Amino acid sequence: MKRALAVTRMHLIDHMTLWALPTGILFSALAINLAVWTVIDRGDRHTGGIASIYCFVAVVAALAVVRGLPFAMSLGSSRRAFTNGTVITGAVIGAAFGTLCFALQLIEHASDGWGMGGNFFWFTWFGTSWALSWLLFVVSLIAAFAVGGFFGSVVGRFQMWTVIIGAPAFILVGGGLAVLVTWQGWWHDIWGWFADLTPATTTLWCAVLALACTAGSWAVLRRYRVS
Question: Which residues contact 216 (CB under 8 A, 6 or more apart)?
């Protein structure tokens, strides 16, 4: 545990990458949406701009693995300690930014969408449970970190083979699944499944995704070789 916490401290000391940039991205996206809302009808002021923080957290996690593992192992860290320390880092990042998003959600809801009727952090889909809203933000951001960490593990482990083989394979598998779904007429059922998701079930699925990506990262990192 001491070695894992040392890895966590190693990650968190990079204030610019882990803290300043995601915060800047989030508030920049919000500022852009506020500017756009001034020129569109009030009823159309809905956005998916909050996805920016999720994307950047995933990128941060990938960089933490790709850049951090060789350095950590050069200092005597084991692969297990690095994995555990990175998981703790993801939990800290998820809790911090999840709490920030939740606080801004409360402000947005109380101020009628920043006085513009806009929806950046809050939608009626969240319902009336503030505790569940906070938990959803935290768990979903942890899941985003886990997804990025898994991608970083694969890139670090297989290097250019990730692009040479992985990209065409992803396109082929994704295209094949799209053809299969279209052929079987499953699109309606798939969109219906997404439409039926609630904050509670979404939180649960995010937790499952985080656990699956964490297990996948460990499976890859345990065979990681540092040249």
Answer: 150, 153
DSSP calls for 59-92: HHHHHHHHHHHHHHHHTT--HHHHHHHHHHHHHH
227: pLDDT strictly greater than 60: no
The number of residues in the chain equals 227
Give the whole-angstrom CA distance, residue 112 versus residue 190: 33
What Cα–Cα distance (Å) separates residue 37 from each residue in 32, 42, 46?
9, 7, 9
Return all residues near 111 (Cβ < 8 A) that are at least 6 apart: none
* pLDDT, tens digit (0-9, with 9 covering 90-100), for 57-67: 999 999 999 88
Contact 89, 9 (CB under 8 A): no
Q: Is the four-CA dihedral 19, 24, 29, 33 of positive or negative sign?
A: positive
- The confidence band for 38, taking pLDDT boundaries of 50, 70 and 90, is confident
* pLDDT at position 99: 97
Half-sphere exposure of 78 (CA within 13 A, CB side): 9
Q: The pTM is what? A: 0.87
Q: Which of 54, 123, 50 is nearest to 94 (CA)?
A: 54
Beta-bridge partners for 46: 119
- Identify the band that residue 188 occupies on the pLDDT scale cut at 50, 70 and 90: confident
Alpha-carbon distance 41 to 202, whole Å?
Answer: 30
